[in-house]
Amino acid sequence: MLVTKELVRDQLLAYLNHTITLAQLVDWAEDALNEGDLEAQNSEALRDVIARLGLADVQEFGLSWDDCYEFLARLGYQVQVRVTPATA
Questions:
Q1: Are 46 and 38 within 8 A, CB to CB?
Q2: Could you give the CA distance from residue 58 to residue 86 in angstroms, rounded to a whole number?
């Protein structure tokens, strides 16, 4: 599997949007780090972000909104928050 900044972005957004759980994000990060090939042009940032995501289930590390914001910014994304009405 080729691990790109877009793939990491999609995983973080899935977590933030409650499409995947923290446990699923951590499992994905561990698999990506162990079995994935990191995109060459962003390999250092990808390795750092994915390694940190792999530790997010450890109480001392956790995963805050600020962490996610910082990871996305480091990968070259600008984060904006929108609030939409909940459907009944």
A1: yes
A2: 32
